[in-house]
Design goal:
Elements lengths: L4 H11 L3 H8 L8 E2 L5 E2 L2 E2 L1 H13 L8 E8 L6 E11 L3 E10 L2 E11 L25 E2 L10 E4 L11 E8 L7 H9 L16 E10 L11 E11 L2 E10 L4 E11 L2
């Protein structure tokens, strides 16, 4: 009996772990356990950045009991991560309402992700404001419209409509509904961090040819007091507002299915074109 390459890829994809299963590997104590990253959670020569960010957050969020909710994250993609990943966490400061936690991920080539997570309790304030312009919201997808990526790529774990990016459009803005196929048992913040990095860097919408791009760092601010959405759908919106000298800067926002803003972000992206 001959087994085709497509059959091998399908078998590998079916044996891959869900996000919840990978986070369970990490454990729920101050000393994180090693996590084995399957092929289906990679992008090129490294683990998917959203997955790495979610693992680092998971380890940080369990460094001590009774941490308040995540309010902000600074994530540096310092190098490729593959194979066995190990999180190392450190409490930088614990105040009455705020905790600063460092969380690093190490792979077979050493340090690959360096994160600072800020956990902060909410409090009543006299001043509130919001000045975020909503994107054009397409209708949430129907079942018959859904696509996924190839088995050896992290998008095989997700569902979306059409292509994640259409390079013929020549646009500096990418906006897509995205969701995980398997969402059971997930911390909604870990899910949000995973999905927030699910689109390609928006500079790719301006490139005339395939070129190497690489996210260098990512600032995420949690806006909503409660992270939630219906049917797993998140609208990811990314806009390149400056690009030159091989580095682009993009603004990002994550909205739920009720058009409520969940988080904002900003990424610095290296491009080679």
């Amino acid at each position: 009996m001959t087994v085709s390459n497509s059959d091998r890829l399908e078998t590998a994809a079916n044996s891959d772990s869900s996000l919840a299963e990978l986070l369970n590997q990490c454990g729920k104590g101050g000393d994180a356990n090693p996590v084995e990253v399957p092929q289906g959670w990679t992008q090129g020569r490294t683990a998917f950045g959203g997955l790495s960010s979610a693992i680092a957050y998971h380890a940080a969020s369990h460094i001590e009991p009774n941490l308040p909710g995540l309010r902000s994250a600074q994530i540096a993609f310092t190098g490729p991560l593959f194979g066995t990943l190990t999180a190392q966490t450190e409490m930088l400061r614990r105040g009455r309402s705020t905790a600063f936690v460092q969380s690093d991920l190490h792979g077979e080539k050493g340090l690959g992700l360096h994160c600072n997570f800020i956990f902060a309790a909410t409090r009543e304030t006299e001043i509130t404001t919001s000045d975020m312009t909503k994107p054009d919201f397409p209708a949430t997808p129907d079942q018959e419209e859904l696509h996924s990526g190839p088995a050896q790529f992290f998008t095989s774990k997700m569902e979306f409509v059409g292509k994640r990016i259409d390079t013929s459009q020549k646009t500096n803005r990418l906006t897509r509904w995205m969701r995980l196929k398997d969402r059971d048992g997930l911390d909604p913040v870990a899910e949000l961090l995973c999905m927030g990095d699910a689109l390609p860097p928006s500079i790719m919408g301006l490139l005339d040819k395939n070129a190497m791009v690489s996210s260098m760092n990512w600032q995420v601010n949690i806006i909503a007091d409660e992270i939630s959405t219906r049917d797993g759908w998140w609208l990811i919106d990314s806009k390149t507002h400056h690009a030159d000298h091989g580095a682009s800067s993009q603004y990002m926002a994550i909205w739920n299915s009720d058009q409520q803003l969940m988080a904002t972000g900003m990424q610095s992206v290296a491009y080679y074109a």
